[in-house]
Amino acid sequence: MDEGRLQAAFEKGTFVLRLTGDVRLTLCATLDQQVEPLAELPGLERVIIDLRQVINMDSTALGFLAKIALAVRQRIPGQPLVAVDHPDVRRMLDVMGFQKYVTIIDMPWSEPSDFSDLPALESSEEELRDRILEAHRTLAAMSEHNRIEFQPLIDLLESQREP
Amino acid sequence: MPVNTNRVALVDQPGARRDALYQALSACGRFTLLAADNIDALPEGLDGLIVHADIVPASQWASLVQRLPIVVISQERNSRALLAAVEAGVLDYVVDPVGHGLLLTQLMLRALDCRRVHASALRDRDRLEQLNEQLQTHLSTLRTDLQAGGQIQRRLQPMPCARLNGIEGDYWMAPSLYLSGDFLDYQAHGDRYVLFCFADVAGHGASSAFVTVLLKALFQRWLSRWNARLPENLPARWLARLNRELLDTGVGKHAAIVVGVIDCQTRTLHYSLGAQMPMPILATKGSVRQLKGEGPAVGLFPDVEYPTYHCELPEHFRLWLCSDGVFDCLAGNNLEERLSALCEHIGNAGSISDLKSSLALSDALPDDITFLTLSGFNDG
User: Fold this and answer.
1) Inter-chain contact B200–A101, Cβ cutoff 8 Å?
2) Which domain covers residue B212, as residue numbers?
3) Cis ω on the peptide bond leading into residue A163 (within 30° of 0)?
4) Model's pTM, two decimal places?
5) What's the pLDDT at A74?
6) Is residue A86 part of a domain?
7) Which of A53, A148, B50, B183 can pair with B199 through a Cys bridge, CB separation 3.0 to 4.6 Å?
8) Separation of alpha carbons B145 and B134, rounded Å
């Protein structure tokens, strides 16, 4: 099992949270307190949650994502985007009832250099296409830097990793 | 130049030898120097001693070494008095000290430093022992609390192997810690209905266990107030109320849950679920299938309406509910494979103990695991 990892970045109004591996936050009791400051970020316009490298998430981690989605609902114009690749993770999001609160996009994991083409989409909504294109760019940038605004959050989450 | 706060006594007979050494040491200026004639008349508040070997009777070295850091001075390397000091544990000595004022100063400073480090280590050790003792006390209090909590949880569980209106309820719970975040209950209502609830509160440990106690209280209260009308509406109504209750309580906890009503007269199961995974599994003669249904977890999203599902029950059936901890014990590379492995295990199991044996559950469980079965009617 890959142990879970978390990365976060805030750039040009976009907050990105990337989870990786087997994310188990069972014993993390203080996560809820981390959600509100995140939602109150000045200039927050877009939230992207990248789950493309997640192989498993426990219910505490899923609950944490739900709380983020709820906290930013009144503060950003669109819904948070959740990028998934693994069918099990997609299934868990569906079972938990996330569809109403976030936009789930199936987006295969690829290296940043492969981000130039936008995949063909069922959706005809221009705005959604733009947002997904923007998400591609932001996610690509994630691998190049990890801004420190969220270091306390990351430290907290990283400290909850299974030994 | 550091502040020379250390008070060091130079102990020797008064005279030219002591005066010369006093001058040499004062020139170095590394500590506050006091002169004394013998060890019985030492000034108060000393940090160290520079003492001539001939001044101290052999029998008194040992107690002196215990008291203060010492550097011994002597005129000859092979003097009997110097040997007595070394035997008693004095490590530092300087022969012909007047010519070696700087060396003597450095040895004294080192001895003072060693004593300081040693004293600090002793203080740390005492503090650690004290903390450790407090920790052990807290730990045992916590353990006692958890054990008491575990006993209360067990008292809230229904009777295993209970027969209710022709339905047999059975279960097995294995908390990964003292307390479980899993909750179940089944009760008869009148002579026609059997109601059940199966929930897995996110996380495990004390906070999740408290929510299971809340669930029990609510389940009990709502059951006692139910007027036995419209059983098909009850599960969805309960989940919506429970969702509100958890959000209003503000405990920040959510749960996967199934609530069901078995109507023993019409032989129908009415149920609603919130984020239950694995889905309820119905084993009948010759088939094992996952029941359909969806709905979000309770305690996460506000204003949720839950769909109700119905299922005809044949004459012989066993309904299985498992908490998601079971996935850790199933073979398969993905959820689908594990779910079909679970169905296969259930198809071959006539009881919960059969399932436990076939899953080969180990003692150390990564998550709470709970199984519940409701079987009937077996009257044909």
Assistant:
1) no
2) 157-376
3) no
4) 0.76
5) 85
6) yes
7) B183
8) 16
